[in-house]
Specification:
The protein is an all-beta fold. It has seven domains: 45 residues, Laminin (Ribbon); 37 residues, no CATH class; 43 residues, Laminin (Ribbon), CATH 2.10.25; 40 residues, Laminin, CATH 2.10.25; 38 residues, no CATH class; 46 residues, Laminin, CATH 2.10.25; 49 residues. The chain has no helices and 28 strands. The strands form 13 sheets. Strands 5-6-7 form a three-stranded antiparallel beta sheet, with no helix packed on it. The protein is elongated, with a radius of gyration of 59 Å. The termini are far apart. 14% of the residues are buried.
């Protein structure tokens, strides 16, 4: 007979009925223990008792932990004590009261200790490593990163660069200011009939009269230069030409017997000899034309006499005449 199926059999709270040969048994559920006396006919189910106690001591280089664990299972009590000792690394740099560094220094954590290093822009002196001195980056070419067109200014722990006058940029990279294209000049205030023009320089700019003019301080104006009276300012003579002054410039007029080189695309071109003999009317009939530099020569043919240019008339054999002619 299974007594657990009998409604009159009731196990206490927090327990279950288990059938046994000829009887039954009440067993506490998981998480509960029998707190009744050993002679009691039925159990009294009570929750486990659990107690934990721990103390931790932390020192600069080690940690000590002491803990106690107590718990009861059913009618038994258990107690465990644990003592733990271990070395534990401490970062002294996290606590300003745990390290000592000098001015312009910072703490660097080590294994079991720490050391001090100079801040960026400073260096430790050989006399006292706790004293950090400012690095003058402006006098140190390996550290200074200013442009060659900038001024370096040293500051405590650092430096800064400023572009020189006539340049712009962040100091590390400086670019020339084109005052002429940016209209940052006053050249157009000089001159009356002819104004000065702006010439960009590196750095700055220059005001000067246009080519072919020069400044007259008396009239305070740019006046025309007569290049023809200044030999080195014109090269007409080497072109077989004569200099003729123009406003702001000059021109080379070819001499008699020469003409401008038709193959030259420039403004000033050399003068080349004119081959008058290509014009079959240069000499008189019965005459031979010979080109000269400059001019040309007309010679009457054998058996004729005359200047060769206007006429050649018949004569005794063996006589001839010749004249050099210029157009």
């Amino acid at each position: 007979m299974n007594e657990c199926l009998n409604a009159t059999v009731i196990c206490p709270k927090n327990s279950d009925c288990y059938d046994t040969p000829g009887s039954y048994r009440c067993v506490c559920n998981r998480g509960f223990r029998n707190a009744a006396p050993p002679t009691a006919p039925r159990p009294f189910c009570q929750a486990f008792e659990f107690e934990f106690f721990a103390i931790t001591f932390v020192f600069s280089f080690f940690k000590v932990e002491f803990s106690t664990l107590k718990f009861e299972i059913a009618a038994y009590k258990f107690e465990f004590s644990l003592f733990k000792f271990e070395f534990k690394h401490i970062n002294e740099c996290l606590n300003i009261f745990s390290y000592t560094c000098g001015m312009y220094q910072h703490c660097v954590n080590d294994e079991g200790s720490y050391h001090c290093e100079c801040n960026y822009g400073y260096y430790a002196t050989q006399i006292n490593p706790l004293v950090c001195q400012d690095i003058d980056e402006c006098n140190n070419a390996t550290v200074r990163m200013c442009s060659s067109d900038a001024k370096c200014t040293n500051t405590p722990g650092s430096f800064y660069c400023t572009c020189n006058v006539g340049f712009y940029g962040d100091g590390k990279f400086c670019k020339n200011i084109d005052e002429c294209n940016m209209n940052l000049h006053n050249c157009n205030t000089f001159g009356i009939k002819m104004k000065m023009i702006c010439i960009d320089k590196v750095p700055g700019f220059l005001c000067q009269c246009p080519t072919g003019f020069r400044w007259n301080p008396s009239s305070r104006d740019c006046e025309d230069i007569d290049e023809c009276v200044i030999p080195y300012m014109n090269n007409c003579t080497m072109f077989h030409a004569k200099c003729r002054n123009t406003y702001g410039s000059f021109a080379c007029d070819c001499l008699r017997g020469f003409m401008r080189d038709p193959t030259c695309p420039a403004v000033l071109c050399p003068c080349v000899n004119i081959n008058e003999c290509q014009n079959y009317t240069a000499c008189a009939p019965n005459a031979v034309c010979q080109d000269m530099t400059p001019g040309y020569l007309c010679t009457c043919n054998m058996g004729y006499v005359g200047d060769g240019y206007r006429e050649c008339r018949g004569m005794m054999p063996g006589n001839h005449s010749a004249y050099i002619h210029f157009k």
